[in-house]
Amino acid sequence: MTGQPEHVVIVGAGLGGLRTAQQLRSAGLQGRVSIVGAEPRLPYDRPPLSKQLLTGEWDAERTGLAGQDAFDELGVRAHLGNPAVALRPGDRTHELELADGAALHADAVVIATGLVARELPDQPAHVHTLRTLDDALALRAALETADSLLVVGAGFIGAEVASSARTRGVAVTVVEALDVPAVHALGPQLGPLAGRLLTEGGVELHTGAKITRFGDAPHGVAVELADGRQLAADVALVGIGAVPRLDWLAGTGLDTSAGIACGPTGRVHGMDGVWALGDVAAWHDPAHGGRHRHEHWTSAGDQAAVVARDVLAAPPPPPAVPYCWSDQFGLKIQILGRPELGEEVVPLHGTGLDGGPVRGTVAAYVAGDRVVAVAGFGAARLVARYRPLVAAGAPVSEARATAAALS
Ligand SMILES: Cc1cc2nc3c(=O)[nH]c(=O)nc-3n(C[C@H](O)[C@H](O)[C@H](O)COP(=O)(O)OP(=O)(O)OC[C@H]3O[C@@H](n4cnc5c(N)ncnc54)[C@H](O)[C@@H]3O)c2cc1C
């Protein structure tokens, strides 16, 4: 592809898809833009689904990210409720087949199809998962008449749902198969602080507890744990992560086993004229090597800016530091950088790691002597001060000096 593309098709009408359309226009794309969405809805925001929507503070409309007028203004044609079912790459033009049999031809394709919630084996149909607005509305309706909720999985989604249910006065039990809650996001040293938020918020937490089967409960849901214990609740949510659903790319020969493999600007490995971004895309990380999928709201927007410029052969924006947050039990957990690369954790502020209050605790994740990530609990102003250090991979001595200067 040389010069500007004539037609860009964006697959996925979520956050990343919408931001790509907006960024393409603001970067000067003149040609046609189409956006294809599996859900019959205009793009909406997912973070409130486990928070304000579930507590009842927000109605569904407030989660909307863009109305039809915004699409009209951008000059974007939306095909909603009509998922892409196949991609047939060509030399110059790619063909995208939609579920209703229609075919779209594009010289640039951007894939932002997100994830689907993972389920447990033999999970009954009335057990909830949470990924879409419809999922959230169904869970909220169920909580309206429930006295008790069983949450499977103590990651961020499980904990946020637990927190929202507690706000509604529902008794909550959380069952986590691993020994440490939120260990994938926070690691083994800081994960226990997320566990404390749960128990201090009135949740009954069972860690190292594997569910072996769902049983019968007269009303609601029952589960049996590996040690024989039985738990029951009026409503159950399984929050055990989410996976890319890429069966529609099966015919392309792409390796999609760990998300869509991409270069550092989102170009899909092995396929010219195709980009991927957001939760579904495993971008090459030039700072640390390897490929990584960020399941973060902020990354989808940051990556959309990079992809839009790359599609137009314009220089990329400055690199962004990965960032995510979780709101639970009246407190914001924030993570800058890539904690999973850390070899040790260095406390910077607060005493949460010594058994003191979780709120106000900030710590650095360090690899070699370099800061690769910083996490904070209810300490937004402090966390913000470490962004330049994480961006630069600064020595831990600098983080310690910053902590001393801020104390
Ligand atoms: C309940 C919940 C709470 C969250 N809270 C936070 C938070 O507090 N902080 C944070 O940093 N992140 C949070 N996230 C993550 C954040 O929302 C995601 O990182 C972000 O939405 C990713 O954007 P995306 O465009 O990659 O995917 P999505 O927003 O999931 O959009 C993908 C879209 O593609 C569509 N699609 C799928 N397959 C096809 C197909 N074949 N054809 C056409 N369309 C298709 C889907 O229907 C979907 O609408 C949360 C996520 C959830 C589910």
From TrEMBL:
The keyword Calcium does not apply. Residues 323-403 form the Reductase C-terminal domain. SUPFAM superfamilies: FAD/NAD(P)-binding domain (SSF51905), FAD/NAD-linked reductases, dimerisation (C-terminal) domain (SSF55424). Residues 7-304 form the FAD/NAD(P)-binding domain. GO terms for cellular component: cytoplasm. One of its GO terms (molecular function) is oxidoreductase activity, acting on NAD(P)H. InterPro entries: FAD-oxidoreductase/Apoptosis, FAD/NAD-bd_sf, FAD/NAD-binding_dom, FAD/NAD-linked_Rdtase_dimer_sf, Reductase_C. Keywords: Dioxygenase, FAD, Flavoprotein, Oxidoreductase. Coiled coil: none annotated. Its cofactor is FAD. Gene3D superfamilies: 3.30.390.30, FAD/NAD(P)-binding domain. This is 3-phenylpropionate/trans-cinnamate dioxygenase ferredoxin reductase subunit.
